[in-house]
Design brief:
about 150 residues, alpha+beta
């Protein structure tokens, strides 16, 4: 009877150790943030009102990609201090679901309205992997009036 209890205790111990190692392996399997290569638009691009803006990027991860989010903001130093007839260019965030370990993105982000306020804008790219790790980059866009 004593041998049966010892064998059961040994089996329980081995199962606990084995399960613990699997959990450890899963939590340490993705230690690297994803890689983002922005091909378009390039930093400091000059654009005219009425232009369409496409984003083109290569997204990579060592385990699994999740999503790419692109947001637009007016550069803080460029915010108008007086009321203007024109409004800043605005767009909804672009969220692209990704899968696998490498994916190319070529999407229309938006069109600069003809009455958009000229100035410096920023496109903020945030790439996330399935483990929640992120990589962010910012591209500056110079918007001018189309005469």
């Amino acid at each position: 009877m004593k041998n049966v209890i010892n064998i059961l205790a040994l089996c329980l111990l081995m199962m606990t150790i084995a399960c613990g190692k699997d959990d450890e392996k899963e939590s340490t399997s993705d230690q690297t943030a994803p890689e983002l290569i922005i091909e378009s638009p390039v930093d400091n691009t000059d654009l005219l009102s009425g232009n369409q803006v496409f984003v083109k990027a290569l997204c990579k991860d060592d385990v699994a990609l999740s999503k790419l989010t692109v947001t637009l903001s007016k550069k803080a130093s460029e915010q108008a201090t007086t009321k203007s007839v024109k409004e800043p260019w605005t767009e909804d965030d672009l969220v692209i679901d990704l899968s696998g370990t490498e994916q190319s993105v070529d999407e229309l982000f938006g069109e600069i309205s003809s009455d958009a306020l000229a100035g410096v804008y920023q496109l903020n790219f945030t790439l996330a992997d399935e483990a929640g790790k992120t990589t962010s980059e910012t591209i500056t866009l110079n918007v001018n009036m189309n005469l």
